[in-house]
Amino acid sequence: MDNTSNFQCLRCGDCCRWHGYVRISQEEADQIAACLGMDVLEFIDKMTIVTADRRSLSLNENSDGTCIFFSDNPPRCEIYDVRPAQCRDFPVKWKSESEEFQCRTQKKKQLK
Length: 112
Ligand code: SF4
Ligand code: SF4
Description:
Blueprint: H1 14-17, E1 23-24, H2 26-36, H3 40-47, E2 48-50, E3 57-59, E4 70-71, E5 76-77, H4 85-89, H5 104-111
Antiparallel strand pairs: 1-3, 2-3, 4-5
Helix pairs in contact: 2-3
C-alpha cells in the first residue's frame, strides 16, 4: 500500500488505541496548542512526554495505552484537523510488518 489517495480508513480507532509514541514536531506542538486554546509551553508540560531517545516529544497516553486525544463511541480524534503527521501517514507510509500494528483496512484486504 503506497498511495495515500487509495487508502480508505474504516475509522475503527484501532491505531489510536495502541500503546506507543505519537511523536510531534515543534510546529505540530504549536498547532495543537493553538487548536486547544492553550499556551504551547503549558501544552508541552501537561500533554506530552520526552521520548526515551530524547529526540522528540510524544503525546501522553491514558493508562490503557490509548492516546489522550482519542474519544470512543464513536471512535474519534479530538484534534483531527491538526493531528500529527505520524497519524496522518498511518498506515500508508509505515513500514511495520508487525501483526500487532496492522491497520484494519489492511487486515480486511488480506482476508479477501
Ligand atoms: S492524535 Fe488523534 S489520530 Fe493521532 S493517535 Fe491521537 S487520537 Fe489518534
Ligand atoms: S486502524 Fe486503519 S482503518 Fe482503523 S482507524 Fe486506524 S487507519 Fe483507520
